[in-house]
Amino acid sequence: xxxxxxRDSIGTRKVNMNAYYGIQTLRATENFAISGMRARPSFIxxxxxxKKAAAIVHKRLNLLEREKADAIVNAxxxxxxxxxxxxxxxxxxQAGAGTSHHMNANEVIANRALELLGRAKGExxxxxxxxxxxxxxxxxxxxxxxxRIAAVMETxxxxxxxxxxxxxxxxxAIEFDGILKSARTHxxxxxxxxxxxxxxxxxxxxxxxxxxxxxxxxxxxxLGIGGxxxxxxxxxxxxxxxxxxxxxxxxxxxxFTPAHDLFEAMQSMRVFVGLSGTIRNLTQDLIRxxxxxxxxxxxxxxGLAEINLPPVQPGSSxxxxxxxxxxxxxxxxxxxxxLGCDQTILLASQAGQLELNVMMPVIAFNLLFEIxxxxxxxYAFTERCVKGITANKERCQAYxxxxxxxxxxxxxxxxxxxxxxVAKAYLASDKSIREIILEKNLLDTDQLDAVxxxxxxxxx
Length: 460
Hints:
Elements: E1 3-7, E2 12-16, H1 23-31, H2 41-60, H3 66-80, H4 99-116, H5 129-133, H6 139-175, E3 180-185, E4 188-194, H7 195-217, E5 222-223, H8 240-252, E6 257-258, H9 262-267, H10 270-296, E7 307-308, H11 326-349, H12 360-384, E8 390-391, H13 393-402, H14 411-414, H15 416-428, H16 433-439, H17 445-451, H18 454-457
Parallel strand pairs: 5-6
Antiparallel strand pairs: 1-2, 3-4, 7-8
Helix pairs in contact: 1-4, 2-3, 2-4, 2-6, 2-8, 3-4, 6-7, 6-12, 7-10, 10-11, 10-12, 11-12
């Protein structure tokens, strides 16, 4: 392996000649051979957006030579286009606050920029990872700002899939609106309802979650960039902060604003706990909905079988013809993982001390990971499950007519006690509720026809 020599404050090391990362990244790979997991791509891209913006702003302020600034910007653009991603090699579990990830980015950008200038990797006297790429920046303001940028971008993508899911459930609600069925409470027969009402509730629930998550994104748009090491803005130009917010907003097409208190933006992880909390709340409802669909489709001969989930793959290695609700099962598994990520975020967020939370790398990974997998799961679940659901109308109708709880409608007419006697007689015989009511002379035929209109029972 051909190598180049690089020096840092600790000493000198040989670095692979072809690697875009440098000595500090090399030390991180040696120190943190932990999980094999790397930073989420969205976190890398958000970090690169900050580096690109900083180069543009410092060129504009005449603090960085045009040639060097343009080389940094061009290197950033290549990374944002998906190139050089194999240069980001630091493990998720790394130095506190994300210094290792941060220097990995600085070194990759610097070495690619050097190549664009016609220089060799490692010629840091020409363009340095710290002095030029990291000008007026600190891990302590870059990392929480990158976390916010990535969280906003990833969540907006996830919300598009959530909106699609809510819309699809609404379409199914309209399709199933005329299908009568028995409601169930405590997993026992309850009063009649319509299958469309059940699916409309799912849609309404997802819309409410959409609105809540969207609101939780707003605090994430406040960036503490420019606070540098402790929130004082040391080494940053007076106009740097304002220019950075404007430039990042232009690059990402998202309207960011400066944090009101740079110290608080660095110290507290509240915005990530808040966002993750809304995602956790959505997740627990998605798990519930997935389980409902599994119950409603159970069978097909010995279960409820009120709906059919589209078959997407064989369900058994030994039982021929068996098909399982695999998309709902997948959504459950993703949901459990999201809940675990949220718990990690909560615990790591309260573990900060004084001016900095050093657990930011694990917070960033878990937040972006949960958003990404939930977004993908929502899309797959909607496309490959919800859109293909069909109803077994006759089965639903039979359950509606056979539910003992339809006697509930008799309460205002014959009283709860007599209605309970009708219910007990129904359970103890093969006779219908209609037959029992007529035998007991509780109502005549005309009255019974008016009262026992199942569809009317489902209306407010």
